[in-house]
Amino acid sequence: MSKEKIITAVKKFGVAAAAGAIMFAGGAFGTFIASEYSTVKSVSDPDLRVVASTVPGAQAQDIYNGNPIVSIVKRSSPAVVNIDTETMVKQRIMGNPFGRDPFFEEFFGEDFFNGGGMQERVVPQRGKGSGFIVTKDGYILTNNHVVEGADKIKVTLLDGRSFDAKKIGQDPTFDLAVIQIKAPDLPVLLLGDSDATEVGEWVVAIGNPLGFENSVTAGVVSAKNRTLQAPGVNFQGFMQTDAAINPGNSGGPLIDLSGRVIGINTAIVPYAQGIGFAVPINMAKQIMDDLIQHGEVRRGWLGVTVQPLTAALVDSYKIPVKEGSIIANVEPGSPAEKYGLRRGDVIVSIAGKAVKNSQDVVFSVRNKLAGDKVEFEIYRDGKKRTIEVILGEIDKGENQKTGSKPKQEPSSTVKTSKQMGITAAVIDNEIQKQFKLRSNEGLIVLNVERGSLGARLGLQPGDVILEVNRAKMKTLEDWNRVMGEKNKSLGILMSRDGQTLFISVEM
C-alpha cells in the first residue's frame, strides 16, 4: 500500500488550541507540574541490549495490510502495560470532635476522649500510569513521575498477568524511569528514530487514561522541540501531538505508522484539546541504557556559562555571525578549559547541529553523557574553528552560589571616574581586600545612579568591568577614553561573584 493510501485510511483529528498550565499525564491524577539524543548506546551484556530499531522487511510490510491503525494496535498492545502504584503518605486528621464534654464523659467514659485533637496517620495513596516493555528480560520504560516515591509497583499486561515490579533507575531531569518485572515470554516494542519524525506524521498513543485500560487514540505530530516551562522545572525538546492524552497515559508509547515507538507520552495542557507532549525516544534511549547499567544517569559536564548573542554584542565585538551563543565564563579545571574553549568564543554548532541561542547549548550538552566526545564549531577573533571536547561528569555534590557578597564602602582616598551614571575605580590592594576580589584586574563599580545608562545595563555596585568593546580596562584613563568615543553600541565584559558575563547596549 502506498504512503498516500495509508494516510487516507487514517481518520484525521482536528487541533483545538487552548491555553493553560502544564499537567503530568499520569501518576496521581491531577498532579500539575509545579514549576525544566544521540544514537543509542547498547549495554555490553547481550541480555540487557535494547531492542533494535530495525523492523524486518516482512514484518514491516504486514503492518500496512488492511487498516494500519488496527495492525499497529494488534502488534503493539501486548507490550504496553498498566502501572498501578501505592505510596504511603502521612495524613493529619481530626480526633474526637466533642472535647471533654461532661455529658459524653458520663455516658461513654474516659476512653471516649483519648483520641481528641489532631492526629497523624499513614494512609496509602494510589496512582496509575502506563509503560512499555523494551527487553525480553522485563525492562519497562515509563515516566519518572509515575513511579517516583512509590512503595509498591504493580504491572499488568494485556493478557491479564500481573507482576510486582522493582525500580531500576530514575532520571527526574527528563522525567524517565526504568522498572523491571520477572516473567517468561514477554512481548517487546521496537524503538524508532524520533529525529527522523516529521511534523504532520500520523501517530498512535496507547495507555491507561483515567483507569480505562489499553485505550487507543490517534493523531499527528503537531510540533517538535517544544520547551515547557513552569516555576522550578524546565522541559525542553518535547514532541507535541494532538493524539488524545489524559491522566494515566503517562509513560505509554507514542507509535508511528511503522509500529515503532517515537515518544513517551508525558504531559498535557489541561482545559485544552489536542495539546499533549511526549519525550522523544532518541532522548530516552541513551538515558535508559545508563539507568539499566548504573541505576542513574551520568550526565555530561562542559563547564561554561553562555549568553545570548545580541545585536549590540555582534556590533561592538565585530562578530561575523548573528546566530549563536557566546561563552561568558569558563570554569577552572573544567573540560571546556582542558580542551581549549575560551571566554568570548561564539558557539555556532554542536555535534553538527546549528546553535541559534544559549538554550540550544544548554540543551545539547545536557543531552550528552559523561565521556561523550562532542564537536564544537566556534568563532574566535573572527575565524571559524572546530574544537573537540570530551565531557566530564557533573559533580552531584557541587555547591551552589548563595548570592552576592556584601558590599562595602571604599576608602575616601580612592580615585574614581563617573561615566554612564556609574562610579568606577581602579582596584588597588585595599579595595581588593574590602570586596574580597580574586584579582585586581579591571575597574570596580562603586555606585550606579537610578535611571542611568549603567542602571539600564544592569550594573550593580561590586561588579568588576574587565573589558569594553574588547579594550581591557586597566586604568581610569582607559575607561574615560572608551566612554568618550562615539560608539553605536557597547559590549562590556564584567565579573560578578566570580562569574564573568557579557552585557551590551545599543547607544
Label this structure with key terms.
single chain, 507 residues, alpha+beta, Thrombin, subunit H, Pdz3 Domain, 3 domains, 7-stranded antiparallel sheet
Q: Can you put this structure into words, describing what you see?
A:
With 507 residues, the chain is α+β, with helices and mostly antiparallel strands. It has three domains: 1-91 and 125-293, Beta Barrel (Thrombin, subunit H), CATH 2.40.10; 300-393, Pdz3 Domain (Roll); 416-506, Pdz3 Domain (Roll), CATH 2.30.42.10. Helices cover 17% and strands 36% of the residues. The chain is built from twelve helices and 30 strands. The strands form five sheets. Strands 6-5-2-3-4-8-7 form a seven-stranded antiparallel β-sheet. β10 (202-207) and β11 form a beta hairpin. The longest helix is centred in the middle third of the chain and has 14 residues, at 281-294. The N and C termini lie far apart (63 Å).
Question: What's this, in brief?
Answer:
This protein has 507 residues and is an alpha+beta fold.
CATH class of the largest domain: Mainly Beta
Distance from N terminus to C terminus (CA atoms, Å) equals: 63 Å
CATH architecture call of the largest domain:
Beta Barrel
Average pLDDT score: 77
Radius of gyration, Cα only, in angstroms?
A: 29 Å
SSE class: alpha+beta
Low-confidence stretches: 1-20, 28-64, 397-408
Strand content: 35-45%
Q: How much helix is in the residues?
A: 10-25%
* Number of structural domains: 3
Instruction: Give the number of DSSP strands.
Output: 30
Strand arrangement within the widest β-sheet reads 6-5-2-3-4-8-7
CATH topology of the largest domain: Thrombin, subunit H
Counting DSSP H or I runs of 4 or more residues, the number of helices is 12
* Tertiary shape: elongated
